[in-house]
Write a structure and sequence with these properties.
Elements lengths: L24 H4 L6 H12 L4 H23 L2 E9 L2 E6 L3 E5 L15 E7 L2 E6 L1 H4 L12 E6 L4 E6 L1 E9 L18 E7 L2 E6 L1 H12 L1
Parallel strand pairs: 2-10, 5-7
Antiparallel strand pairs: 1-2, 1-8, 3-6, 4-5, 6-7, 9-10
């Protein structure tokens, strides 16, 4: 097998890259059109690969592969953060249908109360409306101009929850979610499936599916 040292690189000596004394230049115009140049290129591609070269690239690919494997297994969660009273909460974006401005809630005789607020119409669709603040035993605070509503659930069943403020969507890894404190599990905040941190504040990551299932059983 020809090595690079043994290869005829006449183009560097008497060809286009050399003193141009090669008699073939007048006919081929440039070394790129010369059969000798083409043959040398084929020999270069067909030469044996040095063992240290193979070892180096094997290590490099293995290292990059392990990094990609770790990244692929590190699942990212998209959560929407919001405020009720003085406390911060989050739910999975997968459970979120929409964020809307406050709309009129129509109470139902003998049915509406502090938890079940009534019905609201969203683009002609009548949806149930409940108070997360009452459900989670959150102390009420003064109203603000930042109030919004969250439509949470699936296309088959949805609930509308008024909230005091929506902070937006943030992404977290599973490692970012801490287990809720034991004392928290003894209250209605047992619907919290984890704790995340946002702006140095603790945020309760709610289990939206469990919350909606409970509301369905309690109010319907």
């Amino acid at each position: 097998m020809v090595t690079i040292e043994e290869m005829n690189d006449c183009w560097n000596r008497i060809g286009a890259e050399g003193d141009r004394s090669c008699d073939e230049l007048k006919q081929v115009t440039h070394c790129h059109n010369c059969p000798v140049f083409s043959q040398s290129g084929r020999l270069l591609l067909e030469r044996e690969v040095p063992s240290d070269y193979i070892q180096e690239w094997t290590s490099t690919i293995a290292e990059r592969g392990s990094v990609l494997s770790v990244r692929s297994t590190e699942e990212m969660l998209s959560l929407i953060l919001f405020r009720l009273g003085k406390e911060q909460f989050a739910i999975s974006v997968r459970s979120l249908q929409e964020v809307i401005r406050p709309t009129r809630i129509h109470t139902l005789p003998h049915r509406s109360n502090r938890l079940f607020l009534g019905l609201t119409s969203i683009r002609g669709e009548i949806l149930l409306c409940a108070s997360l603040r009452e459900f989670l035993n959150i102390e009420a605070t003064a109203t603000s101009d930042r109030e919004q509503m969250l439509i949470v659930g699936t296309t088959q069943r949805k609930w509308v929850f008024p909230v005091d403020e929506v902070y937006g969507i943030r992404r977290y890894t599973l490692r970012d979610i801490q287990d809720p404190p034991v004392v928290l599990l003894k209250t209605n905040a047992a619907y919290t499936q984890g704790i995340i941190t946002w702006k140095d504040q603790k945020v309760n990551y709610l289990n939206a599916d469990l919350l909606i299932d409970t509301l369905d059983r309690r109010l319907l």
